[in-house]
Design brief:
- By secondary structure, the chain is an alpha+beta fold.
- The protein has one domain: Alpha-Beta Complex (Molybdopterin biosynthesis moea protein, domain 2), CATH 3.90.105.
- The protein is built from four helices and three strands, in the order E-H-H-H-E-E-H.
- It has a three-stranded antiparallel sheet.
- A hairpin with a 2-residue loop joins strand 2 and strand 3.
- The longest helix is centred in the middle third of the chain and has 9 residues.
- About 5% of the residues are buried.
Length: about 80
């Protein structure tokens, strides 16, 4: 047993997966417009996008992983 080896520091990277509407537009390289997002958000309860959104105050946050999953399924 080697007790002289230094402890390696563990580096953890934490990311924030929630984006505002303008941030999500940038994340999609402007392939999705702000107007499209707002239209989808108006119907978020019926189209399934609601499960990937959070509203805090007047800010709407969209989970980017959930949005990509929703979008890949056909953005119903």
């Amino acid at each position: 047993m080697n007790t002289n080896s230094p402890l390696k520091s563990q580096v953890t990277t934490q990311t924030f997966d929630w984006l505002t509407i303008p941030s999500l537009v940038e994340f999609t390289n402007k392939q999705v417009t702000e107007n499209q997002l707002r239209w989808w958000l108006r119907s978020k309860q019926s189209n399934g996008l609601g499960e990937y959104t959070r509203t805090i105050g007047r800010k709407i946050y969209i989970n980017k992983t959930g949005f990509m999953k929703w979008f890949d399924q056909g953005a119903v």
